[in-house]
Amino acid sequence: MSDPSRGPGVLHVVATPIGNLGDLSPRAQTVLRGVDAICAEDTRHTRQLLGHFGIERPLVALHEHNEDGLAARLVERLQAGESLALVSDAGTPLVSDPGFRLVRAAREAGLKVSPLPGPSALIAALSVAGLPSDRFVFEGFLPAKAGARRERLQALVAEPRTLLFYEASHRIEEMLADAAQVFGGDRKAVMARELTKLFETVLDGPLDALAARVQTEADQRKGEFVVLIEGAGDDADARLAEGHRVYALLSREMKPSLAAKLAADITGAPRKALYGQGTPGA
Ligand code: SAM
Prior knowledge:
- The protein is α/β, with parallel strands linked by helices.
- It folds into 3 domains: 4-119, Tetrapyrrole methylase, N-terminal domain (Cobalt-precorrin-4 Transmethylase, domain 1); 122-229, Methyltransferase, Cobalt-precorrin-4 Transmethylase, Domain 2 (2-Layer Sandwich), CATH 3.30.950; 235-274, no CATH class.
- The protein has helices spanning 26-34, 43-52, 67-79, 100-108, 121-129, 146-154, 172-183, 207-216, 235-250, 256-267, 271-274, and strands at residues 10-14, 37-40, 59-61, 84-87, 112-116, 136-141, 162-167, 188-193, 201-206, 225-229.
- The strands form 2 sheets. The protein has a 5-stranded parallel β-sheet with strand order 3-2-4-1-5. Strands 6-7-10-8-9 form a 5-stranded mixed β-sheet, with helices on both faces.
- Helix 6 packs across helix 7 (172-183), helix 7 runs antiparallel to helix 8 and helix 9 (235-250) packs antiparallel against helix 10.
- The chain starts with 9 loop residues before the first strand and ends in an 8-residue tail after the last helix.
- Residues 18-19, 88, 90-92, 95-97, 120-122, 166-168, 192-197, 224-226 line the site of S-adenosylmethionine.
């Protein structure tokens, strides 16, 4: 209900559980109970969550297809004194989820946007991976198409910080196989699956072993995933990164097999890790 006498409302950005409903904080429950409306990615999904806690508030569907159009209207409601909450289907809104445009519009209008921190699969995975966590890079979802995915991975080979990716069950096998090829099978990695849920599993090991396990065990391809890859640290990683760079240049001018052989000779990177990389349609 708009009431100009109470001044502009607040946009609360509220994290919700990534699996275990016990992770909805008491403060999140209080705020969700108190707002005029809740903007939700999927209203049916959010209604279920709210139902579990006995919270009944009006819901507004806000997803990637209508966010642009709806943001201005929601800003007007905030300016008129309504307080709103923004949630996504799971975890922290805006982290590989809608909300960025609404938050930007609210901030540009000088409105208060207040975080209600809580679960995020990315931070949950980082906290249990046992990989360096002082500096890390979140890459979200890799491209669905194989060529674009490998290109993106290749651009990250020399990255020294721990890398984090979200991945879907139907692509986890391909993703790990590509990562093993591009980064080299020895690079340390962790696959965090179904965090906070019944089948929570955190596997670690060299990329080739992880890829092989996921290929052979169908259960390891079920659910939701965060994949973490240790950053390039030592000489071997630097050699591999340089190998990829030289191979990409040479393969424009000659057959991939010869380019891989020469790039391996020049840089000392393993030929097998280079072959097939950077060639169109490879
Ligand atoms: N906003 C969410 C967050 O803060 O984590 C992420 C939303 S994104 C659309 C969904 C992806 O997050 C999934 O495909 C998966 O990669 C990851 N994810 C979500 N829940 C997870 C869980 N319980 N365990 C592992 N990964 C999860």
